[in-house]
Amino acid sequence: MNGVEMFRDLQREATEWRRYLHENPEPDFREHNTAKFVAGKLASFGINHIETGIAETGIVALIQGEGGEGPTIGLRADMDALPIVEASGKPWSSKNPGVMHACGHDGHTAMLLGAAKYLASARQFKGSVALIFQPAEEPEFPTGGFKMVQEGIMDRFGISQVFGMHNRPGVEIGKFGICDGPIMGSQDDFDIIVKGSGGHAAHPHRTIDPVVIAAQIIIGLQTLVSRKTDPMETLVISVTKLNAAQAYNVIPDRVEMSGTVRTHASGLRDFAEREILASAQGIARGFGADIEFKYLRSVPVTFNHTEGTNLAIKAARSLVGSESVNDKMRPSMGAEDFAYMLEARPGAFIFLGNGRTADCHNPAYDFNDEALPYGIGYWVNLVDTVLGA
């Protein structure tokens, strides 16, 4: 196993890759130049088995070890950027107006490229490593992770275990966090249209006011969490969008509202879909109105398997020591479409500290290049841990 100092020589080159990607971000399923850049680097490392165009712009590349027969493990990095106007003020800020790498996928891609270069040179492992460069982690369903799994990458490349990694702002550089079981929440999204009867705002008694009804529905949905679910289980229901009339003196015919549902308990997804409909419909009908309801299952719970979690912990500890690996990290309610890969194969998802930076999805965010050798080293040590010859 290698300490982080073994990978500092790759940091300068990986920083150049990362900043190039940051300057040239591309959104979901449109990562054409990003994919071309990644494929070119992989070929330059002497990797011969590179397949492109998976899930539109995704890539899987295989590195065969020289240690004999063995399994194939998958290492995944996401490549897409977000529709955000950058405000980081960095010299390598986005050149693509309205699009930026606000979640560190540029760093994730650079770290896996760094590991690819090292592994392609050394090849001191048995079996094979499948490098998965995934498009479109950020959008609503269907995401890039879902599409790659649906297109059969696990069977096609013989992947037996799969691993992912994400940076975490606020956690010190060189620190890792992971836990067994649920580590990130599921994401479902819903739309409700409240259909009333509009009119003049001066005469509300002649209307069925969908604005007031929508307000009652929003409050009512919160009781589903506080009064109808076990307080020891996790459930979040948030209404995030609301559209009504565009004038001061108009009560509209309809109000459109949307929101998201997050949980670590898969069974609560069924509960939420059923009870949101019942609650919203009951409130609306009590006022003489009705609703239209749509519920979209987007991303499942990101669930770390015990064996994969233990392998990830061992690899991280071999890089930075036990004291720098929090193996009882508190799960996040954020969602991650790597969940689809962990449904298809056992494995684990780990977090790497990004230092004191702006949070992900913030216009001021930037991936911390000091984290690069830690991510590269983690991937290499993970391969040594699972496939060591």
Notable features of this structure?
389 residues; metal ion binding; 4-stranded antiparallel β-sheet; Alpha-Beta Plaits; Aminopeptidase; alpha/beta; 10 helices
Description:
Helices cover 34% and strands 25% of the residues. The protein contains ten helices and 16 strands. The chain has an eight-stranded mixed beta sheet with strand order 1-2-4-3-5-16-6-15, with helices on both faces. A hairpin with a 3-residue loop joins strand 1 (49-54) and strand 2. Helix 1 (11-23) packs antiparallel against helix 3 (105-122), helix 3 (105-122) packs across helix 10 (372-387) and helix 6 packs antiparallel against helix 7. The mean pLDDT is 97. This is Amidohydrolase. One of its GO terms (biological process) is diaminopimelate biosynthetic process. Its cofactor is Mn(2+). It comes from Allomesorhizobium camelthorni.
Give the CATH topology of the largest domain.
Answer: Aminopeptidase
How would a textbook summarize the main sheet?
8 strands, mixed
The count of DSSP E runs of length 2 or more, i.e. the number of strands, is 16
Name of the level-1 CATH class of the largest domain: Alpha Beta
Domain count: the total is 2
Query: What name goes with the CATH superfamily of the largest domain?
Result: Zn peptidases
Radius of gyration: 23 Å
Which range does the strand content fall in?
25-35%
Organism: Allomesorhizobium camelthorni
InterPro entries: Amidohydrolase, Bact_exopeptidase_dim_dom, Peptidase_M20, Peptidase_M20_dimer
GO molecular function, one term: metal ion binding
GO biological process, one term: diaminopimelate biosynthetic process
